[in-house]
Amino acid sequence: MAITVRLMSLLMKFQTAEATVAMVCSEIIDVEPSKNSVVALNGALLDPPSSIVQGQMLQEMITLSLSASRSTDVTSHRGRELMSGLYFGGRHSGHREDYDKQLHQ
Amino acid sequence: MTGKLQPDELEACVGPVRQAVLSVGVEDRDLHGFVLPGGLSGVLGIYLAGIKRSSAEDGALGIAEMVRRTNLASLKPVTVQMIGALIRAIGERHPSAGKTAILHALATLLEKAPLFAKPFIPQLQRTAVKNLSDPANSDVRNEAAVVLGALIPMQPRVDPLVTELLGAANASVDDGVKFAIVKALCEVFSKAGKSVGESQKKAVSDLIHEIVVDGRGTAALV
């Protein structure tokens, strides 16, 4: 799975913004949270193209991270959800407050 | 001296010669004897006898070590002979360790002297793709992915390769094989992602969807 996520991350660098957004939706956002989707989320956020770290996409990924952290199916991936927070924090500090606010709601 | 020895006698020399080379040479530094005119031919004859017979692993590792201890000018006259022998050897029945060593030797040669290997690109690509699907051993598959990675920058068009890899991935029921193919696709995108066509990108995206969402293929490796 990790190598598949690496491939996804590489593919996103060479796709159009529309194709990247469609890919993130179909692999990560529009599916039931699972181990695979959480690993894919973290892969996408490790070196994200600009098309997915803005506006509604970002909001949906934060929501998904929080939802995944509460899911009993993916509890072992709680640490990964926290990593997502660090990626947001480190790369896009303007969004960290949003993330923290949701985390403590 | 080596010209007068029989093939089985040459093969018996493979191990001791490798030891001797390792004991006097340093990796990535020219070994004086190898860069003298004709200096490679004696040792190469011994290693080639090894890869043609039952000492394929030692012979191929010896060739890889020799390549790393020789400059390009000295390698040039023997490259065709070396690559030809390695390609023929990998088509023969060898244990997985032997195949892995042969692929390692090819990868070392491609890394050091990519231009000399250009005439062999089609055969090398076929060899690498075939061994990516080796059902028995992950070392063979991983080394084949390395060879493929070394070949990618030398090719003007990568779409046929991507199509071939996708075909192999879709035909495979073995998670290990699919893993190696996905790894090879990573090599393609990291080295020549800009050259991949739109329809190939869409097909790669479908493969990712199959693995991530449908849980087929390398999902079991989480």
Largest sheet of chain B: none
The secondary structure category of chain A is mainly alpha
Q: Biggest chain pair contact, residues each? A: A-B, 23 and 25 residues
Fraction of helical residues of chain A: over 70%
The residue ranges of chain B in which pLDDT falls below 50 over 5 or more consecutive positions are none
**Cα distance, first to last residue of chain A?**
32 Å
Q: Are there runs of chain A of 5+ residues with pLDDT below 50, and where?
A: 75-96
Helix content of chain B: 55-70%
- What share of the residues of chain A does DSSP label as strand, in percent? under 5%
Specify the number of helices of chain A: 6
User: How much is the radius of gyration of chain B in Å?
Assistant: 19 Å
- Would you tell me the overall average pLDDT of chain A? 71
Short key terms for the protein model shown above:
heterodimer; A: 105 residues; mainly alpha; globular; B: mainly alpha; 2 domains; elongated
What would your notes on this structure say?
The complex is a heterodimer of chains A (105) and B (222). Chain A is mainly alpha-helical and 105 residues long. Chain A has one domain (2-103). Helices cover 72% and strands 0% of the residues of chain A. Chain A is built from 6 helices and no strands. The longest helix of chain A has 16 residues, at 55-70. Chain B has 222 residues and is mainly alpha-helical. Chain B has 2 domains: 1-113; 121-222. Chain B is 69% helix and 0% strand. Chain B contains 11 helices and no strands. Chain B has helices at 7-24, 32-35, 41-52, 56-67, 72-90, 96-112, 121-132, 138-151, 159-171, 175-192, 198-212. Chain B is elongated. The chains are: A mainly alpha (105), B mainly alpha (222). The A-B interface holds A 1-8, 10-11, 13-15, 19, 23, 26-27, 31, 35-37, 39-40 and B 179, 182-183, 185-186, 189-190, 193-194, 196, 201-202, 204-205, 208-209, 211-213, 215, 217-219, 221-222.
